[in-house]
Amino acid sequence: MRFFRHIFLTYRFFTLFAAIAALFIISFLVPQLFPFAQILLILGGAMVVLDVVILFNPKLVMEGWRMAPKVLSLGNQHKITIHLHNPNAFPLGVKVIDELPAQLQKRDFQIRLKMASHEKQELVYSLRPLSRGLYAFGKVNLFLRTVLGLVERKYSLPQDQEVSVYPSIIEMKSFELKSFAATGTLGIKRIRKLGHSFEFEQIKEYVRGDDYQSINWKATSRSSKIMVNHYQDEKSQQVYCLVDKSRAMKMPFNGLSLLEYAINTSLVIANTTLNKQDRAGLITFSHKIDSMIKPDRKRGQLRTIMEVLYREKEGSLESNYELLYRTIQKTISVRSLLFCMVLYNNS
Percent of the chain at pLDDT above 90? Predict the structure, then answer.
């Protein structure tokens, strides 16, 4: 029974024997064709037996493996590579069917190719995960056929692999570069920015281009040079991302749910906040408060936020904004910046 589970008849097989059957039918009208039909039937049967013997030879092997990233980013395209090697002394036709994760709902994936003797090939395809979670890849199934092409043999490569899909790290890195470019902290050249905050840094001697409104007249009167106040961007500010997990956030848009967009955005804001030396926090809510991370700028804060966002799921009830307001009023006692990720409806 195991043998029959691994053998498949091809389109060429049915075409050949349909033609032979048609020749037998015609031989009823033209008896002279009957011997030719018999000869073709015997030859066809012999070719099938030969095909089976070659394909199911114990010495026939195929080598291959799948290369996939250990972590995938939500909503981004990722390349998956399958390496194949034909170590046999004869060419083979190969149909590759990779057992993709169930979350992708892709049932028609297959790649056909021809491999010469001792040839190596790389197959590259892309996938775009649309939900967070653990994605399980299965076997790489190869359907092998010889030059005759009447029968295919199923040859499976055990390549079971689990990959985690996290909020979009690629999108986070992209906005991180844009943030650096905008503030002039990327590279060795410092970009002058207009205006300043009100966090005092130091008093320096005036140079051309300094804001004359920042002249410190008391320090100037005590020295023979013009002195100006220098300010720096305020740091250690608290920034919270408030993520709505109500049933309205299940609404799909361009393949992703609104919650997935909110989670990706929250990760970008948290990363930018920490790069600015501010403190990032997180609150997720629906009809109740689900997760709360106090704002901090320690080294593992981004990882903590990412792990919480990775596990979040949409709820089945409406959001309780009154509870959210009371929670914020009770837990946040200093000035903070709040980003609320909710569904916006024009109507």
Answer: 52
Residue 347's pLDDT is 42
Q: Please spell the DSSP secondary structure of 35-80, one letter per residue.
A: HHHHHHHHHHHHHHHHHHHHHT-TT---EEEEE--SEEETTS-EEE
pLDDT-based confidence at residue 217 (cuts at 50, 70, 90): confident
Closest by Cα among 274, 271, 259, 252 to 309 = 259
The CA distances from residue 119 to 86, 176, 319, in Å, are 5, 43, 59
Classify domain 238-341 at the CATH topology level: Rossmann fold (3.40.50)
Q: CATH number of 63-166: 3.20.20.70, 2.60.40.10, 2.60.40.3140, 1.20.272.10? A: 2.60.40.10
Grade residue 190 by pLDDT with cuts at 50, 70 and 90.
Answer: very low
DSSP state of 150: S
According to the model, what pLDDT value does residue 195 have? 47
